[in-house]
Design a protein that fits this description.
The protein is mainly alpha-helical and about 475 residues long. Strands 1-2 form a two-stranded antiparallel ribbon. The model has no long low-confidence stretch (mean pLDDT about 80).
Length: about 475
Amino acid sequence: MNEASESEKGLKRSLSATNLVALGIGAIIGAGLFSLTGLAAANNAGPAVTISFLVGAIGCAFAGLCYAEFASMIPIAGSAYTYSYATMGEFMAWIIGWDLVLEYALGAATVAISWSQYLVKFLHHFNIHLPAQLTASPFETVTLVDGTTVHGYMNFPAILIVGALSMLLIRGTRESAFTNALLVALKVTVVLVFIAVGWNHVDPANYTPYVPENEGFGHFGISGVLRGAAVVFFAFIGFDAVSTAAQEAKRPQKDMPIGILGSLVICTILYVLFAHVMTGLANYKEFKDSAAPVAIAIAKTPYGWLQQAIILAILAGYTSVILVMLMGQSRVFYSMSKDGLLPKAFSDVHPKYRTPYKSNLLFMVFVSLFSAFVPVHVVGEMVSIGTLFAFVLVCIGIIIMRKKQPDAPRPFKTPLVPFVPIMGIIICVVMMGALPWDTWLRLAIWMGLGFVIYFTYSKKNSKIGQSEK
């Protein structure tokens, strides 16, 4: 914290509580709202998907309360990495820092690929057709209008969006936050318009039965509502990215809890209202196997023009998600570099813009390569398991800190400790257990690579390693 207070050398404190809430909303409202809602309704919960969203929000709230305490205690860039370093030591901090690459860098790559696909759809409406080979990875095939299939070369639009947002981040946090605020305003406006317009065309018959009769575990009934909560849980991922900006907050002790919990509350309200209107416009069975359930719902209203507006909102949503993910990743590596676990280049601050520009440039290349040449399904589930693992370690860290340093100043205190962190751990572990085994295998391979780097470089060159020498 003394290091972070050297304001002339460190990152610039330019973010208000409003900026932080906008960052959180920017990271949370993305693909989940526009696609997972329909899938969870059709396959698991029916119209009671609104209850699923509330259950998922409660699960996130347990982790969010733990994040808020840490963010107020240790207002340093790095999120879960920094908290693990302070509570569980260097080795556990390395594990979580390396794991966060899965959440932020691969998360940005996943969203960039989807952003490219929606851009193609949006441009088709205006008779602008990008070459199919330049919108898919070499491992994917694209079906052309005449029915023929071609192999992709690279996903060029994904490269463009990652490069443009990386340059914006290098330019400055204030400018990035302003751009993010505009994007958030756009997508929230479209969500609110959908709710307002759709509310008047809701058919009450679509809510009967509200909780469809159980057809087997996880398919409707109470178990279906809970399975639906597991599905839509990933629509909430992103609020933790707020904590990576702690070192750039003007009043971190007060503003960080507002940013984390405020964005979570706002998004939960929007999610519940959105799901309620969507399942009221169309019967939940109509959403089965649909990648664009919102389009089905809009078709039940006389406002067809909303379809293009929704795609525009999705593009804005994805853009802000990529922006926040790239920002979060560079701040995690900034903190790891400051601790000596990574080369010093990652914590070099731009002399004019005071941003970790070398870290931004590295991830511009890394994320661009992934988004250009790797299929989306390979990276998507790795993002989920990396995020949940981070949540678990933060919850464990709260329990440890209450034991090790019970009298440390806590501007925000997580209530009902140890109940809240224990519930956070249980819910996240259950979610991890629901992921496919090959995702666990990829996690094991990724962590194995991390151990090699730690024991060959980081352990010897870290501040702790140097002091032991």
